[in-house]
Backbone:
């Protein structure tokens, strides 16, 4: 008999509720931190066992799909009036890429800062396996974003005002500078990893959780290395910023910030809270 079953049997003995009623109450309660941790750890273990080619294709698909965030936000920016509330609405378009990637089970680098880190913290995998996985997913994500950005510059594919909105998104993403982008990246990495932590308990509300978290990233203009790579690569391809601004001014600091936010603020802290129990 498991510890959980023993607890239910004990509660049945001291409670006025019957065993079936206690089991019904248990089924309606939120999963414990241990359960959430184990669900994500098992997912990470499964991902680390996948062939490199499978990881790479999934990461490439995710990079291409993340272009939908630029599409959604840019199209809304181009169509909505220039009002104080415009960013609040267009940020819902930013959420679209994350929604498609997460629900489609494609591998996004910032989500893996939690999923594949837990097996390492648990002691079942080496850091070399985690580093391999990160390298493949990140490289594939970035290749996908650049391909999407270059395809989006094809003349006549989008109306002039929409293309201008895409360029504006990229210019604004790279504008804050190295330190500010890094700090904004910490918040974005923290929120994405927090979203992954919330999903096992979200059940039918997964859609709402994804939209809520990524809308917050979009409306706060936090720096997400993959979504922002589409925007800044588009701006670089259009000549609005240099490729050096793309690589060093945005991608590098956003990458550092996302890793710090995801690994330290979510993976390490949430593992620490259950380490003695597991």
Residues:
């Amino acid at each position: 008999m498991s510890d959980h079953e023993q607890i239910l049997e004990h509660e049945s003995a001291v409670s006025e509720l019957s065993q079936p009623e206690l089991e019904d109450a248990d089924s309606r309660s939120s999963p414990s931190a241990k359960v959430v941790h184990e669900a994500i750890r098992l997912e990470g273990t499964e991902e680390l066992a996948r062939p490199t080619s499978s990881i790479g294709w999934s990461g490439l698909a995710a990079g291409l799909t993340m272009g939908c965030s630029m599409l959604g936000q840019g199209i809304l920016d181009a169509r909505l009036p220039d009002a104080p509330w415009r960013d609040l609405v267009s940020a819902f378009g930013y959420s679209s890429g994350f929604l498609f990637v997460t629900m489609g089970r494609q591998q996004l680098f910032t989500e893996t800062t939690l999923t594949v880190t837990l097996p390492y913290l648990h002691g079942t995998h080496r850091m070399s396996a985690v580093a391999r996985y990160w390298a493949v997913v990140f490289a594939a994500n970035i290749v996908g974003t650049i391909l999407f950005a270059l395809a989006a510059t094809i003349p006549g594919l989008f109306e002039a005002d929409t293309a201008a909105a895409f360029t504006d998104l990229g210019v604004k993403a790279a504008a804050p500078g190295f330190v500010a982008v890094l700090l904004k990246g910490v918040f974005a990495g923290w929120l994405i990893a927090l979203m992954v932590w919330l999903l096992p308990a979200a059940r039918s509300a997964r859609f709402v959780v994804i939209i809520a978290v990524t809308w917050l990233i979009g409306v706060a203009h936090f720096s997400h290395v993959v979504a922002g790579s589409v925007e800044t690569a588009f701006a670089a391809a259009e000549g609005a910023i240099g490729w050096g601004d793309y690589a060093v001014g945005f991608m590098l600091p956003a990458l550092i910030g996302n890793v710090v936010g995801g690994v330290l603020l979510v993976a390490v802290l949430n593992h620490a809270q259950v380490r003695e129990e597991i």
